[in-house]
Specification:
The chain is of the alpha/beta class. The chain is built from 16 helices and 14 strands. Helices cover 36% and strands 14% of the residues. The protein has a 7-stranded parallel beta sheet, with helices on both faces. Keywords: Transferase.
Length: 382
């Protein structure tokens, strides 16, 4: 792939921040990409064989998997053997120039090489050091390697995902890894904000396990209150109803009715005002209790209607509803394109930044695989 010309202006809020991304796979690279999208000058250091995700395909382009392309935009790449004395010396020189280090080596690996946080914090006290791990560095599981699906199992996420009469199910995307990457970004920004006052960096600890447990709302809140172990409810929400996929005369739609007013509006639109007056369905709590009786009544009312048109009509009257789209349909949807959530840079196509800032928006300056030997001499030229 040809490099994208560096003529695209850097408009991001993090312009001038220099990030040394030593991470691989998903959580750390996603953190680095987000920081890069918002203006940081990111140099990703990969081992001589490259990030493992270069091989995670198909599909491939020029021998590199799509998985890698999805996580390494707005970075320049340098290959380095950190296990060698030469690599260790060079990485120290890069740390001296950096504001942020992002790494997700197994705990103890960088320390073995003499370039871990505890060893470097006294040499480079200004550094914000973001460590992404499976379980953190201490505790009963501390220092063990972690993987998204395994954390989904251990954190209870699989136990609440899937149909009630089927086995526990992994969420169909690496949600733990991705949330860990988002948590890492939040931690880096908090630490940079504090450094502006103190002049000192600190360690940002972002673990997959913590991220997985943090995702348990509202199931944790329910268990804290009533002590009942949550089960699987398929597409339905555990607390409110109708918040579920329902059949129509054509394609299914998702209803997200969150209050009594919305339910009454929907019933009026269907000519089923009696449902809203029925004590079993008149209030949110009762609808949740009587969901098994309510769902077939709604699907009977929807049986002669087109799903896409019904969803549009319900949204127009203030009732949250949506057609159930596949990935291709979602990425080609007019609103997806309007929100600039698909980015094209030469041969590269990727997902756009979901956070929009009015004065300092994200910018897309480097496609993945852009090589670079060191940080830019002047960050304003990034």
């Amino acid at each position: 792939m040809s490099n994208i010309p560096q003529s695209i202006p850097n408009t991001g809020a993090l312009k001038g921040v220099r990030v040394l991304d030593l991470s691989r796979i998903l959580g750390g690279p996603l953190c680095g990409q987000i920081l890069g999208d918002h203006g940081a000058d990111v140099l990703k250091v990969e081992p001589p064989q490259g990030d493992d995700t270069r091989t995670w395909g198909p599909p491939f382009r020029d021998g590199v998997a799509s998985y890698y392309f999805g996580l390494n935009r707005n970075k320049r790449i340098q290959f380095m053997d950190l296990a060698s004395p030469e690599g260790q010396q060079e990485i120290k020189e890069l740390m001296a120039q950096a504001d942020v280090v992002v790494e997700n080596f197994k705990v103890g690996t960088m320390e073995k090489w003499g370039i871990g946080y505890e060893q470097m914090q006294h040499v480079f006290p200004h550094l914000v050091w973001c460590r992404v791990t499976g379980f953190g560095a201490d505790g009963p599981l501390g220092s063990l390697p972690g993987y998204d699906a395994a954390i989904q199992a251990m954190a209870g996420l699989m136990s609440i995902n899937g149909e009630a009469d089927r086995d526990p199910l992994r969420v169909g995307l690496p949600v733990v890894d991705m949330v860990t990457g988002l948590n890492a970004v939040i931690g880096v920004l908090l630490a940079l904000h504090e450094r502006a006052a103190s002049g000192r960096g600190q360690l940002v600890d972002a673990s997959l396990y913590d991220a997985g447990i943090s995702l348990l709302h509202p199931h944790a809140a329910n268990w804290f209150m009533n002590g009942k172990i949550p089960g699987r409810s398929g597409n339905a929400h555990p607390n409110i109803y109708p918040y579920d996929v329902v059949s129509t005369g054509t394609s299914p739609i998702f209803l997200a009715v969150g209050n009594d007013r919305q339910f009454r509006l929907m019933c009026k639109h269907l000519g089923q005002e009696g449902l809203a007056d029925d004590p079993r369905y008149a209030t949110a709590g009762q609808r949740s209790v009587h969901r098994a009786e309510l769902k077939p009544l709604l699907e009977t009312a929807f049986a002669a209607l087109d799903g896409v048109k019904l969803a549009e009509d319900l949204m127009d009257i203030g009732v949250p509803a949506a057609p159930v789209l596949n990935v291709e349909q979602a990425l080609q949807a007019p609103h997806t394109l309007h929100r600039e959530l698909v980015v094209k840079m030469g041969e590269y196509t990727g997902l756009g930044a979901p956070v929009k800032l009015s004065r300092t928006p994200a910018s897309y300056r480097f496609a993945p695989l852009t090589e670079g030997k060191a940080f830019l001499d002047a960050a304003n030229d990034a």
